[in-house]
Structure formats: structure tokens, C-alpha cells
Design goal:
The complex is a heterodimer of chains A (about 150) and B (about 240).
Chain A: E1 2-9, E2 15-16, E3 30-43, H1 45-56, E4 62-65, E5 77-83, H2 90-102, E6 107-121, H3 130-136, E7 142-147
Antiparallel strand pairs in A: 1-3, 1-4, 2-3, 3-6, 5-6, 5-7
Chain B: E1 6-11, H1 18-28, E2 31-36, E3 50-53, H2 67-77, H3 80-86, E4 90-94, H4 96-104, E5 111-113, E6 121-129, E7 143-150, E8 154-156, H5 160-168, E9 172-176, E10 187-191, E11 197-200, H6 225-238
Parallel strand pairs in B: 1-2, 1-3, 3-4, 4-11
Antiparallel strand pairs in B: 5-8, 6-7, 6-9, 9-10, 10-11
Helix pairs in contact in B: 1-6, 2-4
The chains are: A alpha+beta (about 150), B alpha/beta (about 240).
């Protein structure tokens, strides 16, 4: 079974994409950032969801979505990037080590992929993922994907 | 010679201010013991007057600052810290230690999140003492300064009105003299309702000696302001 958990900040406002890029933008664009956890697992899904809520979410300032749908609407596209398989991901290792000690046999995480997701907002005809990939993704250590690229 | 009070410092992977904090505690008269979280037991608190969670980046701030420190404390020690406090012990959390105490729910509800600037801030800041009943602050003046160094120090509450309540109820022990990170009510430090737990984002252990001040001619007090925080709690536990 698979579960997608997306954790989004409740308090953060959209920020200018200029803060992500080296070259000036011709048109204003903004972004929001979330963290996505893709889990393949066996066992009790409700217990796993509770584990995620306890370990990955701060209920004072964050929201959790497990629907798999984008948590923000209206973006021109979103960019997911995370560590390549085989590259050491300390956050993943820490979560997996902790899970193995507290799961009580109720569930087993078979694999975990962690991505940062950037929702980019702006005029779709003027908003290209290329500069974001160039300036944010490090192809030596990251995998990435772009969704909802405008035609 | 009178027995010196004991301070127990918990150390996590990524804690990096424990040695400075231990030295500051020894300067004012404490015996100190630093114990890694993997070795700490409930019995370690039996002969301890002050429990300390030092600054740093426990578990690399993975997921969020202090999350795994909180989970490891809960898993290994259960409610030991709360029980320790309830039996008269004192707890001090500095920076990452403050974040940990917040996550453990020992301090008033809230969270320390990314600075509004989304940047790590490392600077000296003016602070204002807002309470007169803190056993950690009574030898400090109404206004003083300490260094801060954090990326996740913005204190927020579920409802912004909660932070106003903390100010009115004397739970906000220190505020910043300027808006350094977007904290609600510019809160820099919280204490618990029993006045035995203090968490603060500034680093008192980094201003023990006058020579640590950026102004080499600084002579406002005999010691750096941080010294007086540790001296306050020393006086409290030895009274």
C-alpha cells in the first residue's frame, strides 16, 4: 500500500520567486513550499497516519494532507525534488530508525521518499520551470519532476 | 565546604552548546554532568536540581527543530521531566532546548517556527524582562542584551490572542527589544505556570565574561549578562 503525506505551513504567506533564483524575473511570480512523504507500507494505515501526524506535523503551525492531491490550487506548475536513491538522506534515515523502534509491529514502512514541493504561481504563459530546475535542483544528488507545466 | 548543586545536561546528536553551558554553570557554582540521550535514565534525575537542554541542532533539525529530541525524550524518559519539575526541580532550555521544551508541552502551548525572514539570524539583541517572579532572572536588570543564533525562533501560538494572554499572565519572561524574527508579542522566552521551567531563544552561555561582548570596552556589569541568569538559578536552588 502507498500513502502520500503532504505537510504544509499554516502561517507562511506566498513568497517572491526572486528569492529562489539567481536571475531577475521579468514578471512577478510567487511560490509556496511543502514537504511530501511517499510511503510504501504494510499494516495498519490508521496507525501509520497517526505516526505521521505525531512525528512529521506540528499542529500549531502545520497542516497534514493525505489525499495525494495538491494542497494549493492555481499554481502554474509544481516542482518536486528530493534526494536520489542511494544518496544519504539523513532525514529519511532518522524517520526510518525511529519508526522501527515505535511501530510495535502495527505497520512496516517498506520505502520512504521525501520531496520538497514548490508550488509556483504566476501567469502560466510567462512561467517556465527551467530557471527553477537550473537554480534549485542539484542533478548530482537530486531527482525531480515537474507537474502541470503549461502547454 | 558546602555541596554544590547538580545540573544535568542532556546531549543529543547535534547539540553543540552543552560545553559552554556546562562551563557557565560551573562558573556560578554548579556541579555539571552531561549525559547523552542514549544513556540517560530516570535515576539520573534523582540527585539533580537543574535539568538543562542546551542549544544546537538536535538530530540536524530533521523534519523540524527539536522534533526528534522530543520523541526520544518521550520514548526514553516518559514524563520524567514533568515529574522532575513537579517535585521541585528546575528546567532550563536554551534555543534548541527551548524548542524541545515547547514540543514536550512543558511550557505554554505554542511553537517555534521559521523566522519571518526565513533566514538564520545571528546577532546581539536587546531584551526586556517582563516578569519579576522568575527564579532564572531575578538578578538581571529590566533591560539587557544577549546574542541569538537561530533559524526557527519565531514564537507562534494557535491563536495570536494566546500570546497576548502569556504576556498578561506572566508566562512571557523576556521579550525582544526589536522585532528580530516575527515572534508574536516579540516573545523571546517563556516560563511555566509553576515558575520552575524557563525556555529562551537567546544564548546566555555566550555572554558570561565581559570580554565576550562585541564592545571591548563594555563595562555595564562585573560579568556578562548571561552570567546573571545562571547565578539567579544557582541562588534559587541553594536558598
Amino acid at each position: 500500500m502507498q500513502l502520500v503525506a503532504e505537510v504544509s505551513p499554516r502561517l507562511a504567506e506566498p513568497k517572491s520567486c526572486q528569492g529562489l533564483l539567481y536571475e531577475p524575473l521579468s514578471k512577478p511570480q510567487t511560490y509556496r513550499q511543502t514537504q511530501r512523504y511517499l510511503l510504501k507500507f504494510t499494516g495498519d494505515e490508521a496507525f501509520l497516519t497517526e505516526f505521521i501526524r505525531k512525528v512529521l506535523v506540528d499542529d500549531v503551525c502545520q497542516d497534514l494532507s493525505v489525499s495525494g492531491d495538491p494542497v494549493y490550487e492555481g499554481s502554474a506548475f509544481h516542482l518536486d525534488y528530493g534526494m536520489k536513491p542511494g544518496a544519504l538522506d539523513h532525514e529519511k534515515e532518522t524517520i526510518l530508525n525511529y519508526h522501527s523502534e515505535v511501530a510495535e509491529g502495527r505497520f512496516e514502512i517498506e520505502s520512504l521518499k521525501i520531496y520538497k514541493r514548490l508550488y509556483i504561481f504566476g501567469d502560466p504563459s510567462e512561467t517556465s520551470p527551467e530557471p527553477f530546475i537550473k537554480d534549485i535542483v542539484n542533478p548530482a544528488i537530486h531527482t525531480w519532476s515537474v507537474t502541470d507545466v503549461p502547454a | 565546604m558546602a555541596t554544590r548543586p547538580n545540573a544535568l545536561l542532556l546531549k543529543f546528536p547535534g547539540t553543540n552548546a552543552d560545553e559552554e553551558t556546562a562551563r557557565a554553570l560551573r562558573e556560578v557554582g554548579f556541579e555539571t554532568r552531561t549525559v547523552p540521550i542514549t544513556r540517560v535514565t530516570v535515576e539520573d534525575f534523582a540527585d539533580t536540581q537543574l535539568g538543562v537542554l542546551s542549544g544546537g541542532f538536535s538530530y540536524g533539525d530533521y523534519v523540524m527543530a527539536a522534533r526528534f529530541a522530543q520523541l526520544e525524550i518521550e520514548r526514553r524518559l516518559g514524563d520524567t521531566l514533568t515529574t522532575f519539575r513537579d517535585k521541585g526541580g528546575h528546567l532550563l532550555g536554551i534555543c534548541n532546548g527551548f524548542q524541545t521544551l515547547m514540543r514536550l508541552g512543558i511550557l505554554p502551548p505554542g511553537s517555534l517556527v521559521d523566522n519571518v525572514s526565513e533566514r538564520f539570524v545571528c546577532k546581539w539583541v536587546p531584551l526586556e524582562k517582563k516578569v519579576s517572579d522568575s527564579p532564572f532572572l531575578h538578578t538581571l536588570p529590566e533591560g539587557f542584551e544577549l546574542p541569538i543564533a537561530h533559524g526557527e525562533g519565531r514564537l507562534v501560538t494557535k491563536d495570536p490572542a494566546d500570546a497576548e494572554t502569556y504576556m498578561k499572565d506572566g508566562l512571557a519572561a523576556l521579550t525582544y527589544g526589536e522585532d528580530v524574527n516575527g515572534s508574536y508579542q516579540q516573545i523571546a522566552s517563556l516560563q511555566d505556570t509553576q515558575r520552575r521551567v524557563l525556555g529562551l531563544m537567546p544564548h546566555p552561555e555566550r555572554f558570561i565574561y565581559r570580554e565576550q561582548h562585541y564592545d571591548r570596552d563594555w563595562q555595564q556589569a562585573e560579568h556578562g549578562w548571561g552570567y546573571y541568569l545562571f547565578q539567579s538559578i544557582y541562588q534559587t536552588v541553594t536558598a
